[in-house]
TrEMBL record:
One of its GO terms (biological process) is DNA catabolic process. It is an enzyme of class 3 (hydrolase). InterPro entries: Exonuc_VII_S, Exonuc_VII_ssu_sf. SUPFAM superfamilies: XseB-like (SSF116842). Gene3D superfamilies: Exonuclease VII, small subunit. This is Exodeoxyribonuclease VII small subunit. It comes from Prevotella histicola. One of its GO terms (cellular component) is exodeoxyribonuclease VII complex. Its EC number is 3.1.11.6. It holds the Pfam family Exonuc_VII_S. Belongs to the XseB family.
């Protein structure tokens, strides 16, 4: 994974959480996003 700034990582995590809260992610996409969040 490429190195990113803390602010960029936080922004990505916030976007993932917002999509989850709004129910915009299907199960497969949610699994991918959770894996990405864990890596951040």
């Amino acid at each position: 994974m490429e190195t990113m700034k803390y602010e960029e990582a936080v922004h990505q995590l916030e976007a993932i959480v917002a999509k989850m809260e709004q129910g915009e992610l299907d199960v497969d996409t949610m699994a991918e996003q959770l894996k990405k969040a864990q890596e951040l």
